[in-house]
Design goal:
By secondary structure, this protein is an alpha/beta fold. The chain folds into 2 domains: 235 residues, von Willebrand factor, type A domain (Rossmann fold, 3-Layer(aba) Sandwich); 83 residues, no CATH class. Helix content is 43%, strand content 14%. The chain has 14 helices and 10 strands. α1 packs across α2, α2 packs across α11 and α5 packs parallel to α6.
């Protein structure tokens, strides 16, 4: 049997948390956010990415962020999925979380649950050797892949369930959770058919229920489509309260949803999006696209986003004008991030919208602030 990516790994320690935190900080994640993510991420022993390479992913209505020019570039859905996979592979390698990448449609026939390393499965895990070689092998596998076939989600999810039960059976006794990220653009199809069906959709829901009830697994559905029927189907699954599952759109869609829900004071940056794509248990991130954060939650999340090191507490307690003054101070010392809504660089927080989120009286602030600085508040 193939050596499991999580074999012998004990992640739920403070030392592991610090390693993850340091890795995130070195990638440009604010210290406060890195510490928060590390506290959650050290409980994750494995991430599995199921990558949809069905024929429909050849459709050219996807997009990705060109990090050199800092602009969105149109591409095929498969290219969007492929680039997402490579970004997460690099990020997980950096922080030391083992991850696996599975193709929805294997290029060759095989028996149930018999994944072929380098063919339809790529593993990135520091215990297996130099991670740069593993990242290169993943990129080669994805470059060889061409969109083809149907969307047999149920079959592949059953295989992943089987793999977690047996090849990664050591994770549960260690108290570690797994995250399964399903990057897809379509509705599930029935076995032996290229067409979606009600039966196939029901089977996927049943398999997800078994997977998440029998094992400590959190599921992310990363949509690479704007099709209304597809989005509605996965959102209905997300609405089931007993399922530990999150549905994530592309970065522009998620940024717009966060803003529409009253959380536009936070610049929905690529790093925030990646953390949510990879599966996080941070309740504040989970709520961004679902409801408006209450003032205390907004202040808490802002504090994480603004903290630059472990010595400072960037925001004072309470919800008064002094919090907004502190935000103004912090923003002067932080680099800007990419804002997918405006398509350009912006501060980590938008101070005017943040004041509204805290319900701070703007006119009272202006009157209390020294005259030479009042322009900063307006």
């Amino acid at each position: 049997m193939q050596q499991p990516a999580g074999a012998g790994l004990m992640r739920a320690t403070e030392q592991d948390g610090r390693r993850i935190q340091d890795g995130l900080v070195s990638m440009g994640v604010p210290f406060g956010l890195a510490r928060l993510v590390a506290e959650e991420d050290r409980q994750i022993g494995l991430r599995i990415f199921l990558l949809d390479n069905s024929g429909s992913t050849a459709t050219v209505d996807g997009k990705y962020l060109d990090t050199e020019r800092m602009q969105m570039v149109p591409c095929s859905r498969w290219e969007e999925i492929r680039r997402m996979a490579l970004q997460h592979a690099a990020m997980n390698a950096h922080v030391g979380t083992p991850c696996e990448f599975v193709l929805l449609n294997p290029p060759a026939r095989r028996a149930f649950a018999e994944f072929q390393d380098g063919v339809d499965l790529a593993i990135v895990d520091a215990k297996r050797g130099p991670v740069q070689e593993q990242l290169a092998a993943l990129e080669q596998m994805l470059q060889r892949t061409r969109p083809n076939g149907a969307t047999p989600l149920n079959e592949r999810l059953r295989e992943i369930h089987h793999r977690l039960q047996f090849a990664h059976s050591d994770l549960v006794p260690l108290g570690l959770r797994s995250v399964v990220v399903v990057a897809t653009d379509g509705l599930p199809s029935s076995s032996g058919s290229n067409l979606p069906s009600d039966e196939a959709k029901k089977e996927v829901v049943q398999t997800l229920r078994r997977l998440t009830s029998e094992l400590p697994v959190f599921v992310v559905i990363r949509l690479a489509t704007d099709d209304d029927s597809t989005t509605a189907y996965y959102n209905e699954i997300d609405a089931e309260e007993e399922l530990p599952l999150e549905v994530i759109d592309d970065i522009i869609g998620e940024a717009q949803e966060a803003a529409e829900n009253g959380n536009g004071w936070l610049t929905y940056s690529p790093m925030v999006h990646m953390i949510r794509e990879g599966g996080t248990f941070i309740r504040l991130f989970d709520a961004l696209d679902e409801r408006q954060l209450v003032p205390l939650e907004a202040r808490e999340l802002a504090s994480y986003m603004l903290q630059r090191d472990g010595k400072e507490q960037p925001l004072p307690s309470g919800l008064g004008a002094d919090v907004c003054y502190a935000v103004e101070n912090c923003l002067q010392h932080l680099p800007q991030v990419y804002d997918p809504i405006i398509g350009g660089m912006a501060p980590v927080l938008k101070k005017r919208k943040f004041r509204l989120a805290l319900n701070v009286n703007v006119m009272a602030m202006v009157c209390a602030w020294p005259a030479r600085h009042q322009h900063k508040l307006l």
